[in-house]
């Protein structure tokens, strides 16, 4: 679910402007999973544009507090959401921790890095939601440390049905600054893509694992 329509449209436009999101249905990208995709999203580019990263920071901070209440801690999911998560925590005047994909093999073998007390209320910040699996693994790691997860806030989601089911089953509320639906509407409006290309992009979102296969 998006925080609100205006933020969703503005965020989508900014991501397109800096090529954090690229749309190319005629020459699709190949994801690490092997899926063919007409869209590629790299939200880490946001950190290289001060005005845009400040916008994302401020929208996150405002809407997290509005939707979840002010938490005790902000947690970022490594590695893509560490930078923006720190900015959000700083804006809210809160502690920050981050969650590795898995525990370290050496030292203290931490998966959650930073100071976290049992029972603290945590909002998790993520950069991108596809299936939601890796994001929810971070939630599980935080819960294993005794955290009370208030919800997750992400920059962008593809809106896959499987992700919605995964978050529902994990009992986690997910809110995003923008999503695939608003991105496509904005991309047509601003002539980044044609209406025919929009149709192809919509078809992909219905069956991303099989799209583009002969």
From TrEMBL:
GO molecular function terms attached to this record: magnesium ion binding; orotate phosphoribosyltransferase activity
Pathway note: Pyrimidine metabolism; UMP biosynthesis via de novo pathway; UMP from orotate: step 1/2
Assigned EC number: 2.4.2.10
UniProt GO BP: 'de novo' UMP biosynthetic process; pyrimidine nucleobase biosynthetic process
InterPro entries in the record: OPRT, Or_phspho_trans_dom, PRTase-like, PRTase_dom
Enzyme class: transferase
Binding site for orotate: 130
Gene3D superfamilies attached to this UniProt entry: 3.40.50.2020
Domain Phosphoribosyltransferase: 59-156
Annotated 5-phospho-alpha-D-ribose 1-diphosphate binding sites: 100, 104, 106, 126-134
Reaction(s) catalysed by this chain's protein: orotidine 5'-phosphate + diphosphate = orotate + 5-phospho-alpha-D-ribose 1-diphosphate
CDD domains associated with the record: PRTases_typeI
Alphabetized UniProt keyword annotations: Glycosyltransferase, Magnesium, Membrane, Pyrimidine biosynthesis, Transferase, Transmembrane, Transmembrane helix
Cofactor: Mg(2+)
Bilayer-crossing regions: 73-99
Function: Catalyzes the transfer of a ribosyl phosphate group from 5-phosphoribose 1-diphosphate to orotate, leading to the formation of orotidine monophosphate (OMP).
Family per similarity comment: Belongs to the purine/pyrimidine phosphoribosyltransferase family. PyrE subfamily.
Protein name: Orotate phosphoribosyltransferase
Organism the protein comes from: Flavobacterium hydrophilum
